[in-house]
Amino acid sequence: MNDDIKKILLTQEEIAAKVKELGDILSEEYRDKNPLVICVLKGAVLFMADLIRQMNIPCEMDFMAVSSYGSGTESSGMVKILKDLDTSVQNRHVLVVEDIMDSGLTLSRLVELLRHREAASVKVVTLLNKPERRKVDISPDYSGFTIPDEFVVGYGLDYAERYRNLPYIGVLKPEVYTK
Ligand code: XMP
Ligand code: MG
Known about the structure:
Elements: E1 5-10, H1 12-29, E2 36-41, H2 45-52, E3 60-68, E4 79-83, E5 93-101, H3 105-116, E6 121-129, E7 142-146, E8 152-153, E9 169-172, H4 174-178
Parallel strand pairs: 2-3, 2-5, 5-6, 6-7
Antiparallel strand pairs: 1-9, 3-4, 8-9
Helix pairs in contact: 1-2
Main location: cytoplasm
GO biological process, one term: IMP salvage
EC number: 2.4.2.8
């Protein structure tokens, strides 16, 4: 599996230090708010699990799975809900946890939906941010790392459902795509 990686972009240690930093900030921000922390499946699972362990405040978690309609690797902006929340967001402070903000289409739709459902507040924390690729006017409220426009895998992120379990984030060798 490691042979498929061209370079390591973020090591396990770098990720852990950043997650701790974000956890400290979010613990301050959400103290006494009992936030509903929403994990966007599946990519954000590892980040979510590590992040909430660095949030040393009461919080609840829930999960959502969405998919963008459209072909290929480009988001179309139409978001289909594959798994909805179990919890009502009405009057709750909601924190959406995502692996990566790319075009921004998925998160802009999701935030819109949660606001429509009358959440008290909706904020987004994303581990990775690719601002070069943005198609809509949105930026994460909290972001771990800004990365260049390269397809990355590991720490939850996949290529064809593989590599999610790598403990670091890396760039795939081009021959893996074309094989
Ligand atoms: P948008 O474009 O709506 O989409 O911001 C975000 C989703 O696209 C996926 N994505 C990636 N997945 N490596 C991945 O494994 C990447 O470099 C990458 N860029 C975007 C991801 O699922 C994210 O939730
Ligand atoms: Mg994702």
